[in-house]
Amino acid sequence: MLEAIGALQQLVPARLVPTLLIHIPPRDKNERQTYLEQICHSLTPEAAKRNLAKAVDVFIEKEAFSVSDAEQIFQAAKKQHLPVKAHADQFHAIGGTELTCNFEGLSVDHLEASGEAQIKALANSQTVATLLPGVTLHLGLSAAPGRKLIDAGATVAVGTDLNPGSSPLFSMQQALALSIRLNGLTPKEALTACTVNAASALGLEDCGRLGLSCQADFLVLQDKDWRVLPYTLGASPVAEVWMKGERYRG
What is the Cα gyration radius of the chain? Predict the structure, then answer.
């Protein structure tokens, strides 16, 4: 899959940021341990050596990898100088968020089950709290505490989590709109969460904002009021897409 992403990058103008996602382990205990060893001693080093991934992401959950498993994977990633990320607190808060913050992870995604301890850990770290409101809408989960995270001082981003299982949400603009309605963000906070904070969650500093030394990536809207972006549902308010200073005509 990482090789396919690398090949796709040669065909599209947008910058792709591939992540090595360690998602679901085998159910068998022996196979699980073998898989964990393969991740740490083979898969992660190979992905780093061939520059196939920019970070390692672990799904830390009762039904997935434990905190102990994730710690081993994070240590393996650090040895290869790869940043770490996590999917955590989707259904249960079992310590994945705190672990990722301790490892200075780029981001923790989901956070639907996050409580005061997880909010505090994120607020006291540089790790970006990434909200995925498409999951909330599609699975009927409680929304991640976006308002509490921002009020506590955490850096909050928003993503689509586009996938066929839990979030068939193709539109980043719709994710922005949902973060206001479901997570309690203001329009300005949502715009920041979907731009500069989202770039930070990917470890990028030269995009997500308009400024010197940044890529000229921006949208031109059909309306003079930018708030049409979070307000509109079911139709795109975008008139033009610009990437690296050139208008995209795809």
Answer: 18
